[in-house]
Amino acid sequence: MPIKAIRQTAIGRNGVGAFILQCKRLDFHYCDWAGSSRGMNQFLTHLLPILARTSPSIEIHVSPRPSHHPVIRGHYINGREKAICVRNLEMQQVLKKAELLRDASGEKLRRVKGGRAVGSLNEGVRGVWSPMHGAEKKEEMFGR
Amino acid sequence: MKPLRLLRWSGTVLSPRARPSPLTRPSFHQYLSFPSSPRAQSNVASIFDPEPDDTTEDPPALSRPSDSPDLLSMPSPPPYRARESAKLAALHARLSLSPRLPFETLARCLIDSTADPDPRFNNSSLALLGSSLLSYYTSEAILCRFPRLPTEVVFASMWAYCGPKILGIMTREWGVEVAAEPGGEVDAGYLQCRWVERKDSTGQPTVPDVKEAGKIRPNADKGWRVGVSSRTVYDNQFGDEIKKQKPDGETRKQQEPIPLEEACANFVNALVGAVYLHLGRRATKVFFTQHIMSRHLDVSKVFNFRQPSRDLSRLLAREGFESPVARIKSETGRASRHPVFVVGVYTDNQELGEGTGASLQEARFKAAVAALKSWYLYSPLESRVPSETLESGAKKWEPLMVDMGEVIV
C-alpha cells in the first residue's frame, strides 16, 4: 500500500513574513451643528489628513450624521467592527481613539494570561518530557 | 444609537435591479467598436526589465475619458476607475506593493473571467503566468528542503502552500471583499466574479458541470489503476486530474459561476503574475517568500501510512540493510487496564525509530512510522534553490542530492 497524504492548509502567521494591518476601514461620522461634534470636526479638518497619510492601508470614509453624536467605526479583516462614540472629546482625544481603532486586531477584548502572551507553532527545541525514558537516564546516572 | 443604513441610501446606485439584465446587456464587442472607447486602452505590461532599476516613477494614469460610456452596460469597471477607488488604494498599500505596480493592473487582477469574458480586461492571462510561477517557486522550495519526500506528500504540500483553498484563505486575510454582482459601476476594489457555494456534504461544487470532452490521460476509460509516477506527468501540480474541455462553441460559458475559492485563487495568481511583469523576478520572489513560504506547514503531519512495517522492510531491503526487528525497550502495567509499551525498530543493532502505545502492535506501528519519517524527512543543512542562481553575483550551482524516490510496495 503506497503512502498516502492528508491534505491540509498551511497556517498563516501575520508578521512572520508580510504584516497585514488588521483594520481595513475607518468610518468617521460627524454633525455640523451639535456641540458634541466640535472636537471631531476639528479632528477631521486638521488631523485626519495626517492620519490618512501615515496609514495608507486603511480606507477612510467620512460622512455626516446629523443630530447624532460623533462616532468612529473600525472595520476589521476578521469581519468584526468596533465603534467608539467620541462625543464631547477634544481633537487630540479623538485622535487617540482613532489610533486605538487603527491598531486594534478586531478580536474581542480578552485577558492575555501570563505565559500565553506569545504563541508559537514551532516545536520546542528542548523537546517534551516523556515518562517512558526516565529509567535509562537513571541507569546512566547511577551506573547500574 | 441608530444603525446607519448606508447601503439603503446608496441602494439605488448599487442595486443590481437598476442594471439592465445580462440578457439585454449589449455584447462586449458592441462598445469596443467605438473608435474612442476608453476600454480599448489595455494595461498590459510591456516587455519587462528582469533587473529593474530602483527609480520609482508613477506610471501615467489612465484618465477618465470625456465621453465616458454607460458604466452600467459594462461587465466590469473600466481601467480609469481604478484611480478613484479608495478600497483599491488601501489594498495596494496593505500588500506593500511598489508604486511601480499601477492601480489599473491591480484592478485588472480583481476581475475574474466569470465577470468579464474579454481576456484583455480580465485576469486570466495574468493568472496563468502567476500560477506557473507560484508552482515553480513552491515546488523547488519543497523539493530542495526535503529531497526524499514521497510524491503524494509533495502533491499535498504543494496544495497546502498554493492550492486554491489556501489562496482563498489568503485573499480573506488580505481583506479583499467580493462584489455581490460584478459590473462596470461597482467599485474597482472589489473582487469581481460570479460564484456559487460549494456543497459541504459531498464536497462537490454546485456549479453546472463542465462538459468534458474526455481526459488528458490516455486509456482513462479503461479503469486502470492510476500510479503515482504517472500523476506527475498527466495531472496538475497538486496531483488532481486535468479535464480536457471541449473546443470552442461547446466550452463552459465564461459567465457561469465558479466556486469562490477558485476566483480568489485566480486573483492571487494574477497578482503574482502582475508583480512579475511590473516589478521583476526579485520582487516576485520576495512576495512569494513573504506571503506564501512564511506560512507554517508541519510536513511530518502530512504523511498517512497504511502499512509502515512493510514499507520499512522494503525500504531497508532496497538500501541494503538488514531487515528490521522490533524489540520491546520497556513496558509497564502489562496486566493492567492501561499498559504502556515502548518499542524500538532496529536493523543490525542500530535503532531506527521508537514508538509508544497501549498495545505491542500499536507501539511497533508507531516505531516503524517514526523510522520511515526520519528517512523521508531528511533535510540538508544548507539547501539552495535553483532560482537563486538567476540573481546576479550568485554562487555557482552545486547539484543537490537526488533521491531514488519512495519505496514501491
In short:
The complex is a heterodimer of chains A (144) and B (409). Chain A is of the alpha+beta class. Chain A has helices at residues 38-46, 48-54, 91-103, 134-142, and strands at residues 4-5, 23-30, 59-64, 71-76, 81-85.
Radius of gyration of chain A: 25 Å
Name given to the CATH homologous superfamily of the largest domain in chain B:
Ribonuclease III domain
Biggest sheet of chain B: strands, sense, closure?
3 strands, antiparallel
Count of DSSP E strands of chain A?
5
Radius of gyration of chain B: 27 Å
CATH architecture term of the largest domain in chain B: Orthogonal Bundle
Protein name (chain B): Large ribosomal subunit protein mL44
Region (Disordered) (chain B): 15-81
Domain RNase III (chain B): 88-149
Domain DRBM (chain B): 307-377
Describe this structure in words.
The complex is a heterodimer of chains A (144) and B (409). With 144 residues, chain A is of the alpha+beta class. Chain A has a domain at 23-103: Glutaredoxin (3-Layer(aba) Sandwich). Chain A has helices at 38-46, 48-54, 91-103, 134-142; strands at 4-5, 23-30, 59-64, 71-76, 81-85. The two termini of chain A are 44 Å apart. The model of chain A has no long low-confidence stretch (mean pLDDT 90). Chain B is an alpha+beta fold. Chain B has 3 domains: 38-208 and 252-299, Ribonuclease III domain (Ribonuclease iii, N-terminal Endonuclease Domain, Chain A, Orthogonal Bundle), CATH 1.10.1520.10; 209-243, no CATH class; 305-388, 2-Layer Sandwich (Double Stranded RNA Binding Domain).
